[in-house]
Amino acid sequence: MPDEITEKVLDLIASTKRLPREQVSVNSSFEELGLDSLDAINLIYEVETEFDVSVSNELANSITSVPVLVEKLKELLAESSSSPQGAPE
Amino acid sequence: MPHFPARVVITGMGVICSLGANVADTWSSLVQGKPGIAPIQLLDASKLRFQNAAEVRGFVPEQHFTPDKLDLLDRFAQFAVVAGRQAIADSGLNITPELAGKIAIVTGSCIGGQATSDAGFVGLYQKNINRVHPLTIPKTMANAGASHISMEFGITGPAYTISTACSSSNHAMGQAFWMVRSGQVQAAITGGSETPFSFGLLKAWEAMRVVSSDTCRPFSKDRKGLILGEGAAMLVIESMESAIARGAKIYGEIVGFGMSSDAGHITSPTFAGPAAAMRAALSDAQLVPEQIGYINAHGTGTAGNDQTETRAIREVFGSHAARLAVSSTKSMHGHALGAAGGLEAVATVMTLREGIIPPTANFTTPDPECDLDIVPNQSRPAAVEFALSNSFAFGGLNAVLAFRKSPLF
């Protein structure tokens, strides 16, 4: 079973790209999901808003699949929770 | 009697941008390969992912306009009028009542006076002030620059503004060129003006993830994106017969204009669309690719543009691409959006006139996907007779102008 963060990301992909939720797999590449570069920027914006994180341009450019997005998001959340300035929640 | 289609020449030029407040200073910076890119001063950039831009420095509006006039002018329209004044004065054109209706004004602007709207809406949305300044609309409209030039000089011919994102100026100048060539008007004031420096707009550009965090390095392997710029450039163009008859100096000639639409993606460029626009410009100018010696590239410094523009140039020019000089002056004056084509037209005309190709500044590392002669970092003496200036916009709208060295020098 995917964890809660992964589930939320899969939900966001499905809603952003208007895909049936069951079509979005934890191992999908953006290309397989039909996400172009603008879709990817939109998705990362939704993720930033949902999780209150900030994704740099360099990091955003490196995110081209669901597993990488989830992995990088978890790293950002870990950084923000270990930082005193991190967003509480 | 005039003969049509007329040959169309440039008899006046005006510029204000990060490189200078006139043609001479701007050209001097371009030849030196000296970028006008520096930390943003017009607003607090601390909450932005990028801190650098190509701003017009040292511009004091009160030195150019009376207070009552300034009330009516957003910064983008101020730039349009300042550049228009320079160009008209430079041309020596005497706008008599008889001539006034035979002059067109065609300008380009992508966003008009949105900074005025942005500032005005802060009160509405944030401070709960339930009214907006009555001049918000006339200051914001994208045609304000054209209208103020018309009013200041009493020009009563066709006047309008084209808004096609980053191709706005080239579309405007192309339309003006065709109007003069066909005899619809005797002369035209044409170019573009822009300023994107409001916090809301900069955040919107940040969200697009196409703005570089340091500088603009077109065609360089390590390019990180575009650098936003501002300013205006205006040309006075007229039929060659009219210019010769009044003894005007002639900077150069516009010989062709081509347009196309990608019909692809709203933000990702194709190579076929830009290639079609370059071919259309060559065809309109009755030129073959081998006659072109220089291309002022769209060259934004984004990963997508520079790679597809290279492919488009190779597609159109074939083996001649290896003998072409291609530079992006956006590396110095930044990407002034709807004014970009105007600034680049001035750069291209001066390249032909002076026999010096301005470089692509800030270049560090060759990119195999951008394997053109991009004149890295150092300007280069070169006698060029024909040149293209490319503009390709978000929305897949492409506009290319073809220029010729002045036939009289």
Give an overview of the whole structure.
The complex is a heterodimer of chains A (89) and B (409). By secondary structure, chain A is mostly helical. Helices cover 62% and strands 0% of the residues of chain A. Chain A has five helices and no strands. Chain A has helices spanning 4-16, 30-33, 37-51, 57-62, 66-82. In chain A, helix 1 crosses helix 3 and helix 1 crosses helix 5. The longest helix of chain A has 17 residues, at 66-82. The two termini of chain A are 24 Å apart. Chain B has 409 residues and is an alpha/beta fold. Chain B is 35% helix and 20% strand. Chain B has helices at 23-32, 67-70, 75-91, 97-100, 114-126, 136-140, 144-153, 168-182, 199-208, 240-245, 272-285, 303-317, 330-333, 340-354, and strands at residues 8-17, 38-39, 52-53, 103-108, 159-162, 187-194, 231-239, 252-261, 292-296, 325-327, 356-357, 380-381, 386-393, 397-405. A ten-stranded mixed beta sheet of chain B has the order 5-4-6-7-1-8-14-13-9-10, with helices on both faces. In chain B, strands 2-3 form a two-stranded antiparallel sheet. A two-stranded antiparallel sheet of chain B has the order 11-12. In chain B, strand 9 (292-296), helix 12 and strand 10 form a beta-alpha-beta unit. In chain B, helix 3 packs across helix 7, helix 8 (168-182) packs across helix 14 and helix 11 (272-285) crosses helix 12 (303-317). The mean pLDDT of chain B is 97. Classes of the chains: A mainly alpha (89), B alpha/beta (409). Chains A and B meet through helix 3 and helix 4 of A and loops of B.
